[in-house]
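Hi there,

I know you've been waiting on this one. I reran it after we fixed the sequence typo, so this is the corrected version. Both the input and the resulting structure follow.
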Amino acid sequence: MLANWLSNIKWALLLAIFAGPAFAYWSYTEVQKFNRISAEGVEATAVIDGGESHSGRRSGTTYKVHAIWDANGTERAENITISSAYAHKIIQDDYLTIESAQIKYLPNEPTAEAVVVEDIPNQIENSTLMIYLGAGAGVVGLIGSAIFFLGGRKKKAEPPKPATSTSNLGF
């Protein structure tokens, strides 16, 4: 039982060597996206006409609001992902407490997500934390794997020595 449990930890640590930095890089690109939208995005007032939450089996809850706004004379509608902190601020008893919000979007990139202006600092803070956690997981995986894989190596068994006879039988 213990050996099986230790074997699972060993392989999880090995996986963390690669998954941790990959997760940190993905979070870094998220921070860059939020910074770019914050700096280059066009601000608009969006009507919030609904929202949804999705709870994953192992992950936390993801919140989205459905926003509609005028983008250069064209009506644009999108589900905008929001942070848990902002969701708890605008949702009470399963009802949205806001009817509109200031958003930023990139008009030249229709596939780029819009963000709620008030939520940008929360989104950046969450993604920055995930950078540190991903990098930390990679370091723990590297050190832990080295301990498990190199520390668990067995020394070569010495070959048996030939038996010597000490009898006085005269042979």
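Quick highlight: Strands lie at 42-55, 61-71, 74-82, 91-92, 95-96, 100-105, 115-116.

Best,
R. S.
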